[in-house]
Amino acid sequence: MRPWRLEDREAFLALFGDPRVIWWRDPPRTAQQLEEDLQRVVAEPITDGLGRFAAVRQGENRPIGNVVLQPAPFVEGVEVGYHFAHAEWGKGFASEGARAAMQHGFESLGLEEIWAIVALQNPASLRIVEKLGMRAVRDMDRLGLPHRLFRMGAGEWNTDGNGR
Q: I want to staple 125 with a disulfide (CB 3.0 to 4.6 A). Which of 35, 84, 113, 118 is the partner?
C-alpha cells in the first residue's frame, strides 16, 4: 500500500467509476467528480498513519484497489475499509489489504480498536471482516441501506492478523 498519486488517475477513475465496485451510489459519480475526488485524496496527506492508500500488487505500481484506515464517520474511532477492481475480486486482496491496515493500526499506531461497516447486501465483505475476527456490534442504516457495524479491540488482534 502507498499513497494515491496524480499519475494513478486512470486506475482511480476506473475503480471508483465502476458501478460493480461502488454499487450503492445512485447516480454514479461523474468523471469530473472523480477527478475532483482524486485531487482531494492526493492533497490530503496520510496523517498520523491514517488515510486512503492505493493497494498495489507486490513488485508492481499500478493500483488495483483502495484501502482506508481513517476516522470513522459513524462511531468515535478509526475504521478500516476497502474497494478493489472487479477483475481482482475473489483473489484475497481485500482480506490482505484490510489485514495489513489493521496490523498497521494496532501494531504501529497503537489503536485501541478498529471498526468496519459493511452493507448487508455485500456478503463477500461480510465474510472478510468475520474472517479477520471482527465482531458484529449492531445493525444500522447508512446511505439508506442496511449495514452491520463490526469492531475489533487491540486485545483481540494477534500477529496472524486474525482475532483470537
A: 118
**Alpha carbons 114 and 74: distance in angstroms, whole number:** 12
- Give the domain extent around 17: 2-156
Per-residue pLDDT at 161: 53
Taking CA atoms, 161 is separated from 50, 83, 91, 133, in Å, by: 19, 19, 17, 8
> Looking at the 3D structure of the chain, how many domains does it have?
1
Mean pLDDT by 10 residues, the chain (164 residues): 87 83 69 85 79 87 91 87 90 92 92 92 90 92 86 84 53
- Does residue 12 sit within a domain? yes
In a domain, 163, yes or no: no
Residue 24: per-residue pLDDT: 64
Q: What is the pTM of this model?
A: 0.85
Determine the length of the chain.
164
| 21 within domain boundaries | yes
Phi, psi of 148 (to 5 degrees): -120, 130
Closest CA to 25 of 142, 149, 148: 142
- Distant-in-sequence, close-in-space partners of 108: CB < 8 Å, separation ≥ 6: 49
Q: Which residue has the cell 469530473?
A: 32
